[in-house]
Design brief:
The structure holds two protein chains of two kinds.
Chain A (H helix, E strand, L loop, with lengths): L4 H25 L3 H21 L3 H22 L4 H22 L7 H6 L7 H30 L1 H6 L4 H23 L4 H13 L5 H26 L3 H16 L3 H15 L1
Helix pairs in contact in A: 1-6, 1-8, 1-9, 1-10, 2-3, 2-4, 2-8, 2-9, 3-4, 3-8, 6-8, 9-10, 9-11, 10-11
Chain B lengths: L3 E12 L2 E12 L3 E5 L6 H9 L6 E6 L5 E4 L13 H5 L7 H10 L15 H14 L4 E5 L7 H18 L2 E5 L3 H7 L2 E5 L3 E5 L1 H4 L3 H7 L17 E2 L5 E2 L3
Parallel strand pairs in B: 3-7, 3-8, 5-6, 6-7
Antiparallel strand pairs in B: 1-2, 1-4, 8-9, 10-11
Helix pairs in contact in B: 3-4
The chains are: A mainly alpha, B alpha/beta.
């Protein structure tokens, strides 16, 4: 079964979509939509360092993204600049450093297209293990910090006053995003990972009325997007990563239809019949 | 010896090139209601945040008794529109509670019927009642109420203050209350601290309304049949609340 490249693509994509759902919700709730972009911009530096030092690329990307996340938290405390300015500042300076480093190390040849857009059809068995084991670890930590992270998202001071540790939860949360970006590079690439985090969660917001509902539906939307995106990419020979995101966008557009109102309306009609 | 739940010792907070508050000392004991009063910008909320451990004092020390349950009703909370949050989810924010317990507590503050409403559909007063219910459900040892009844209708306000008093009696918690309702402050409080960037004066309500400091800040026109907090000054204030040393 695992010999089939298509099967491997489905399994790895589904794994990634499941973990991207709840993380994407927190990214939207905390207004960190550009955070994914910032981290993926920093991934180039991670890849270059990985090549230069001959260490595992996922590890080097995780370390660099992790450092960038921590510097964001540091800057948030030290400056009065708003989040979006800090994220832009970090994104472009780290991208610049990555390109400069790449220029200095002229012996490195990087598959830039692969890095930008990923190649889900080229994943091997090891990649699947990384996605599922890594994803399980990320999910485990997310569940562990769910309550303080969520309470801190609703109101930081309230959570702090009542004895939770929302700031520690924030640090762990940003490291989890760094981890997801690192494990997803090969599959959707650095340009599209933010989309996989945000579009399913956005679609889910329109369909849900509780936080946990929104996290679960975001995962489901992601999985459906992966399945239909992959399928359509093979049918019409379109690039895979972008096909997955296009499918997520279609679901988002469908989510704009007032389904909830329709449901309430139906209930009222039933009551009327009685 | 009676142990205080929290104790501030000469605390000051310095932010953006300015002392927000300075020289704040106060204690809250079990079963006691301590009220902070003072004009806008006098550092009432800042003092409450020091007492809660949200703000670390830049000078002085704050002590919070270990292992006590703390509840906080902040002055203002805005819920982001992207968050789908119902009343029941908000009640379970810090810890999961039994559903019957939630309904009962919500009924005490008068919003039992709103259990499954989206929080953003609540009116200002309803939301305030929700904040109060959430703070009460865990039966705190120390409760901080930062203008807990703002936006609540008049009968509701009286009822909520009655509820607060009953709770102090029942669960013997210490309360730090910030209120503009001087009637409540004077008639239902054990100890009043009058702030204006520093502690102007403090004491029992009856003794403090006689202090000239208090009269200068709040006037003498209060109905004398109410239990007043009286207030005395030995110094003058500049408009920013600092002490005028020129005389």
């Amino acid at each position: 079964m695992f010999e089939d490249f298509l099967f491997r693509a489905f399994i790895s994509g589904i794994g990634l979509a499941i973990i991207a759902g709840p993380l994407g919700c927190f990214i939207i709730w905390r207004r960190l939509s550009y955070f994914g972009d910032t981290l993926s911009h920093s991934a180039l530096l991670g890849v270059v360092i990985g090549y230069a030092l001959n260490i595992n690329m996922i590890l080097s990307v995780f370390i660099i993204s992790g450092l960038i996340s921590l510097s964001l938290l540091f800057l948030q405390k030290r400056t009065i600049l708003p989040n979006d300015a800090l994220l832009g500042l970090l994104a472009h300076s780290v991208l610049a450093i990555g390109l400069v480093t790449l220029g200095l190390l002229s012996f490195i040849r990087i598959d830039l297209m692969g890095l930008l857009f990923g190649d889900i059809l080229a994943v091997n068995f090891k990649d699947i293990l990384i996605v599922w084991i890594g994803g399980a670890i990320v999910l485990f930590f997310l569940i562990m910090i769910w309550r303080p992270l969520f309470a801190g998202t609703v109101n930081l001071e309230l959570a702090k006053a009542e004895g939770m540790k929302p700031e520690l939860a924030n640090v762990i949360f940003t490291l989890l995003i760094a981890a997801v970006i690192a494990i997803s590079i090969k599959i959707v690439g650095i340009l599209l990972i933010t989309g996989l985090l945000i579009i399913p969660a956005s679609a889910s917001r329109n369909l849900s009325s509780t936080p946990i509902q929104m996290a679960v539906i975001a995962s489901v939307v992601g999985v459906v997007s992966v399945i239909f995106g992959l399928y359509s990419s093979i049918t019409w020979n379109t690039p895979t990563g972008p096909s997955i995101l296009s499918m997520a966008l279609v679901i988002f557009l469908a989510s704009l239809f007032p389904w909830k109102k329709l449901l309430i309306f139906k209930k009222q009609i039933k009551l009327f019949d009685k | 010896m009676k142990n205080s739940l929290i104790e501030l010792n000469n605390c000051g907070v310095f932010r953006n090139d300015k002392w927000l508050v300075r020289g704040i000392s106060l204690k809250v004991f079990k079963g006691q209601i301590v009220t902070l009063i003072g004009p806008n910008g006098s550092g009432k909320s800042t003092t409450a945040k020091i007492a809660l451990g949200i703000l670390k004092p830049d000078e002085g020390t704050n002590f919070i008794q270990e292992g006590i349950k703390i509840s906080y009703v902040p002055q203002k909370i805005s819920i982001d529109w992207s968050l789908p949050l119902r009343v029941i989810d908000f009640m379970n924010l810090i810890e999961k509670n039994n559903i019957n317990n939630i309904i009962e507590t919500l009924s005490i503050t008068g919003i039992g019927h709103l259990l499954y409403q989206d929080v953003r559909n609540l009116s200002g007063g309803e939301f305030q009642r929700l904040l109060m219910a959430r703070a009460l459900i865990k039966k705190p040892d120390f409760l901080v109420l930062d203008e807990p009844v703002q936006g609540v209708d008049y009968p509701g306000e009286i009822a909520l203050y009655k509820t607060i008093q009953e709770i102090v009696k029942n669960i013997k918690c210490g309360i730090l209350l910030i209120s503009h309702n001087l009637h409540v402050v004077m008639s239902q409080t054990d100890h009043v601290v009058c702030l204006n960037g520093h502690v102007c004066c403090s004491g029992a309500p009856k003794s403090i309304i006689k202090e000239p400091e208090y009269i200068k800040l709040f006037g003498e026109s209060l109905d004398p049949t109410l239990a007043f907090y009286e207030h005395e000054h030995d110094h003058k204030h500049l408009p920013d609340g600092s002490i005028d040393n020129s005389h």
